[in-house]
Amino acid sequence: MYYGSSGSQITKDKMLKALNKLGDLLRQNNQKLDLVCCGGIVSVLYHGSRHVTHDVDVLFPNNPRITELLKTLVDQVGAEFGLEHGPRDKWFNDSVSFIGLQSRSNTVVFRHSHLVLKAADWHEMLAHKLTAFRGDRDINDAVHFLKEITPNDHSAILKKVTEYRPFVPHVADELFEKRFNQVWEKTHGKP
């Protein structure tokens, strides 16, 4: 979850077309990828809780050759679909690598024969949304992420979410817990 924003937005329809095209290009290059994603793409494609996102946040493979191929294909798809591409901002990017995304779930967000995107763990995505907390969109995303976590044990969930809290940007413990409680109350009522 990149904490900045390029300003552009990708609709669900355009995202699906672009991801399918990226999968087709990977197939043409005899490459299959299974990547971890987080952020708005999960809200758009998995929950359907919003219709747009700024970008697709994924962890790129830990292989320079495959990463370079992926970047080239992402730029090609971006040019074809009028999405951000180039040396800095990309519609499909690994900007989450700076926060050290640690988890992988079995929750499939997008599937193509040569490109599968799986969500990070709900606890970790919730931790990142509580850290970013840029307004109603992040709060709404956080509510959906919290709804996925069972059982509804306030203390246990807060503890695990706190373990995934990113170092940057720094959010004081009290503020982080206050944000968690705000999302909890919207989801389950008073703790």
Describe this structure in words.
The protein is of the alpha/beta class and 191 residues long. It folds into two domains: 10-120, no CATH class; 123-188, no CATH class. The chain has helices at residues 12-28, 40-47, 64-81, 122-132, 136-147, 154-163, 173-188, and strands spanning 10-11, 33-38, 52-53, 56-58, 92-93, 108-112, 115-119. The strands form two sheets. The chain has a five-stranded mixed sheet, with helices on one face. α4 runs antiparallel to α5, α4 (122-132) packs across α6 (154-163) and α5 crosses α7. The longest helix is centred in the middle third of the chain and has 18 residues, at 64-81. It is elongated and about 50 Å long.
Key phrases:
5-stranded mixed β-sheet; NT_sf; 2 domains; alpha/beta; elongated; 7 strands; 191 residues; disordered N terminus
Topology, please?
Layout: E1 10-11, H1 12-28, E2 33-38, H2 40-47, E3 52-53, E4 56-58, H3 64-81, E5 92-93, E6 108-112, E7 115-119, H4 122-132, H5 136-147, H6 154-163, H7 173-188
Parallel strand pairs: 2-7, 4-5
Antiparallel strand pairs: 1-3, 2-4, 6-7
Helix pairs in contact: 1-3, 4-5, 4-6, 5-7
InterPro entries: NT_sf
Q: Which descriptor suits the 3D outline?
A: elongated
Residue windows where pLDDT falls under 50 for at least 5 positions: 1-6
Largest sheet: 5 strands, mixed
User: Which range does the strand content fall in?
Assistant: 5-15%
Instruction: Please count the beta strands (DSSP E, at least 2 residues each).
Output: 7
Q: Could you state the oligomeric state of the chains shown? A: single chain
Number of domains: 2
Strand order of the largest sheet: 5-4-2-7-6
Mean pLDDT: 92
Task: Count every helix, treating DSSP H or I runs of 4 or more residues as helices.
Answer: 7
